[in-house]
Amino acid sequence: MVRDIVIYPNEILTKPTEKVDVIDKEIQNLIRDMFDTMYNAEGVGLAANQIGVPLSVMVVDTSPKEDSPPLKLVLINPEITESEGKIKYKEGCLSFPGLSVEVERSKKIKVKALNEYGEPVELILEGFPAIVFQHELDHLQGITFLDRLKNWRRRIALEKYKKLLKESQKV
Ligand code: ZN
């Protein structure tokens, strides 16, 4: 089921999510809805709090991006255990419709999480999938991509976003 995507500045986007204790039917439904919602919005990643559920769950599917290896992931309680290098990329966000900003992130990361069956997984991500993962992990920690910008760049992006939001509300 496609759910509504929470739009910034909704405060659920700025609060850390809670870890999942038990992966039950409710979590399975949540994961299914997250994929439905992400595909419907043509996104490549989604965090549970972006549909109003404050739990540490993310879904990723990089296959719409042609020059990236297709990768489909469900990650529960994810964390980064190692990181190296730096990469800059102009990111979009489903919770900031129309806005894209250049963010610097780690180029290569090692990730620990549970999969949708509650099994521990460890994986190494590099390039675009690493960027998507770090963007979604930030969401789960209550951080938006604006928080990754400094001073004037953040101010300019926020002004631009406010304008976009106002224009979209006029329609
Ligand atoms: Zn986002």
Seen as an oligomer or otherwise, the chain set is single chain
Name of the CATH homologous superfamily: Peptide deformylase
Amount of helix: 25-40%
Number of spatially distinct domains = 1
Sketch the major β-sheet: 5 strands, antiparallel
How does the overall form come out from the CA principal axes?
globular
The Cα radius of gyration reads 16 Å
Total count of helical runs of at least 4 residues: 3
Descriptive tags:
single chain; 171 residues; alpha+beta; Peptide Deformylase; 5-stranded antiparallel β-sheet; two-stranded antiparallel sheet; 3 helices; 7 strands; 29% helix; globular; binds zinc ion
Q: Can I get a quick summary?
A:
This protein is of the alpha+beta class and 171 residues long. It has helices at residues 25-40, 128-140, 151-170; strands spanning 45-47, 57-61, 72-84, 87-92, 100-105, 108-114, 120-126.
